[in-house]
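Thread: quick sanity check before group meeting

JM: Hey all, I'm pulling together slides for Thursday and realized we never actually wrote out the predicted structure for the chain we discussed last week. Dropping the sequence here so it's in one place. If anyone has concerns about the input, flag it before I start.
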Amino acid sequence: MKFSIEHSVFDKYGSISFGFMLASGLGKVQDFSQMYHQIQSYSDLAKSRIREFGRAVEIPQVKEWQDIYGLMGAGKSKISSIESLLQYVSDNGKIPAIIPLVDMYNAVSCKNCLPMAGYDADNIVGGSITLRTASKGEPFTPLGLRQIEKTKN
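JM (edit): ok, ran it. Output follows.
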Protein backbone atom coordinates (compact mmCIF):
# COMPACT_ATOMS: atom_id res chain seq x y z
CA MET A 1 0.00 0.00 0.00
CA LYS A 2 1.39 3.37 -1.02
CA PHE A 3 -0.05 6.72 0.05
CA SER A 4 1.30 9.94 -1.46
CA ILE A 5 0.40 13.62 -1.53
CA GLU A 6 1.21 15.82 -4.49
CA HIS A 7 3.18 18.99 -3.75
CA SER A 8 0.40 21.09 -5.31
CA VAL A 9 -1.81 20.26 -2.29
CA PHE A 10 0.73 21.84 0.08
CA ASP A 11 1.25 24.76 -2.30
CA LYS A 12 -2.47 25.51 -2.31
CA TYR A 13 -3.33 24.66 1.32
CA GLY A 14 -0.02 25.48 3.07
CA SER A 15 -0.68 24.66 6.71
CA ILE A 16 -2.75 21.53 6.08
CA SER A 17 -2.08 18.45 8.25
CA PHE A 18 -2.59 14.81 7.33
CA GLY A 19 -2.69 11.52 9.16
CA PHE A 20 -2.58 8.04 7.74
CA MET A 21 -3.60 4.84 9.48
CA LEU A 22 -3.34 1.32 8.12
CA ALA A 23 -5.23 -1.45 9.90
CA SER A 24 -5.26 -5.09 8.96
CA GLY A 25 -6.65 -8.32 10.37
CA LEU A 26 -9.85 -6.73 11.64
CA GLY A 27 -11.91 -9.46 10.01
CA LYS A 28 -10.32 -11.94 12.43
CA VAL A 29 -11.16 -10.03 15.60
CA GLN A 30 -13.89 -11.67 17.67
CA ASP A 31 -14.06 -9.29 20.63
CA PHE A 32 -14.09 -5.55 19.99
CA SER A 33 -14.81 -4.60 23.62
CA GLN A 34 -11.34 -3.12 24.25
CA MET A 35 -11.56 -1.10 21.04
CA TYR A 36 -15.02 0.20 21.97
CA HIS A 37 -13.73 1.17 25.42
CA GLN A 38 -11.09 3.33 23.65
CA ILE A 39 -13.71 4.73 21.28
CA GLN A 40 -15.80 5.81 24.28
CA SER A 41 -12.81 7.58 25.81
CA TYR A 42 -12.28 9.46 22.51
CA SER A 43 -16.00 10.36 22.53
CA ASP A 44 -15.58 11.77 26.02
CA LEU A 45 -12.52 13.75 24.91
CA ALA A 46 -14.46 15.18 21.94
CA LYS A 47 -17.36 16.20 24.19
CA SER A 48 -14.91 17.88 26.56
CA ARG A 49 -13.31 19.87 23.71
CA ILE A 50 -16.71 20.96 22.42
CA ARG A 51 -17.70 22.15 25.91
CA GLU A 52 -14.36 24.00 26.19
CA PHE A 53 -14.81 25.87 22.89
CA GLY A 54 -18.62 26.14 22.91
CA ARG A 55 -19.15 24.69 19.43
CA ALA A 56 -17.28 22.18 17.29
CA VAL A 57 -16.52 24.81 14.65
CA GLU A 58 -14.65 26.89 17.26
CA ILE A 59 -12.05 24.15 17.89
CA PRO A 60 -8.87 25.43 16.15
CA GLN A 61 -8.30 22.31 14.02
CA VAL A 62 -11.93 22.32 12.89
CA LYS A 63 -11.75 26.03 12.09
CA GLU A 64 -8.66 25.38 9.98
CA TRP A 65 -10.52 22.72 7.99
CA GLN A 66 -13.46 25.06 7.45
CA ASP A 67 -11.00 27.59 6.02
CA ILE A 68 -9.55 24.92 3.75
CA TYR A 69 -13.06 23.94 2.60
CA GLY A 70 -13.59 27.61 1.76
CA LEU A 71 -10.40 27.63 -0.32
CA MET A 72 -11.74 24.56 -2.13
CA GLY A 73 -14.80 26.56 -3.15
CA ALA A 74 -17.28 25.12 -0.66
CA GLY A 75 -19.91 27.62 0.38
CA LYS A 76 -20.60 28.60 3.99
CA SER A 77 -23.43 26.05 4.14
CA LYS A 78 -20.95 23.19 3.59
CA ILE A 79 -19.32 21.88 6.74
CA SER A 80 -16.30 19.64 7.02
CA SER A 81 -16.71 15.99 7.93
CA ILE A 82 -14.92 16.53 11.26
CA GLU A 83 -17.31 19.32 12.23
CA SER A 84 -20.26 17.12 11.30
CA LEU A 85 -18.87 14.17 13.29
CA LEU A 86 -18.12 16.30 16.34
CA GLN A 87 -21.59 17.84 16.14
CA TYR A 88 -23.04 14.31 16.11
CA VAL A 89 -21.02 13.46 19.23
CA SER A 90 -22.19 16.68 20.89
CA ASP A 91 -25.85 15.95 20.08
CA ASN A 92 -25.81 12.20 20.82
CA GLY A 93 -23.08 11.83 23.43
CA LYS A 94 -21.09 9.28 21.47
CA ILE A 95 -19.44 8.44 18.17
CA PRO A 96 -21.97 6.79 15.82
CA ALA A 97 -21.73 3.00 15.68
CA ILE A 98 -21.45 1.92 12.03
CA ILE A 99 -18.99 -0.99 11.68
CA PRO A 100 -15.83 -1.56 13.74
CA LEU A 101 -13.39 -0.19 11.15
CA VAL A 102 -15.41 2.98 10.54
CA ASP A 103 -16.01 3.40 14.26
CA MET A 104 -12.26 3.18 14.86
CA TYR A 105 -11.24 5.82 12.33
CA ASN A 106 -14.12 8.07 13.42
CA ALA A 107 -12.76 7.80 16.98
CA VAL A 108 -9.24 8.70 15.84
CA SER A 109 -10.74 11.58 13.86
CA CYS A 110 -12.50 12.84 17.02
CA LYS A 111 -9.37 12.43 19.12
CA ASN A 112 -7.30 14.55 16.72
CA CYS A 113 -10.12 16.84 15.47
CA LEU A 114 -9.11 16.02 11.89
CA PRO A 115 -11.18 14.54 9.07
CA MET A 116 -10.27 11.00 8.10
CA ALA A 117 -11.29 8.53 5.44
CA GLY A 118 -11.15 4.77 5.23
CA TYR A 119 -10.46 2.56 2.25
CA ASP A 120 -10.40 -1.20 1.72
CA ALA A 121 -6.76 -1.72 0.68
CA ASP A 122 -7.64 -4.98 -1.06
CA ASN A 123 -9.90 -3.07 -3.47
CA ILE A 124 -7.62 -0.16 -4.36
CA VAL A 125 -6.62 -0.41 -8.00
CA GLY A 126 -2.84 -0.47 -8.25
CA GLY A 127 -2.44 -0.55 -4.47
CA SER A 128 -1.83 3.17 -4.09
CA ILE A 129 -3.68 6.36 -3.19
CA THR A 130 -2.54 9.81 -4.27
CA LEU A 131 -4.05 12.91 -2.73
CA ARG A 132 -4.09 15.71 -5.29
CA THR A 133 -6.12 18.68 -6.37
CA ALA A 134 -8.90 17.86 -8.81
CA SER A 135 -9.11 19.30 -12.29
CA LYS A 136 -12.13 21.37 -13.35
CA GLY A 137 -14.84 19.10 -14.72
CA GLU A 138 -13.38 15.95 -13.17
CA PRO A 139 -16.09 13.36 -12.36
CA PHE A 140 -16.63 12.29 -8.75
CA THR A 141 -19.31 10.70 -6.60
CA PRO A 142 -20.17 12.80 -3.52
CA LEU A 143 -20.33 10.99 -0.19
CA GLY A 144 -23.71 9.47 0.45
CA LEU A 145 -24.81 9.81 -3.18
CA ARG A 146 -24.67 7.53 -6.18
CA GLN A 147 -24.96 10.09 -8.93
CA ILE A 148 -21.68 11.23 -10.53
CA GLU A 149 -21.06 14.97 -10.51
CA LYS A 150 -18.26 17.08 -11.97
CA THR A 151 -15.96 19.42 -10.10
CA LYS A 152 -16.66 23.11 -10.63
CA ASN A 153 -13.32 24.75 -9.81
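AS: nice. The first helix runs from residue 7 to 12. The chain has a mean pLDDT of 85.
JM: adding both to the slides.
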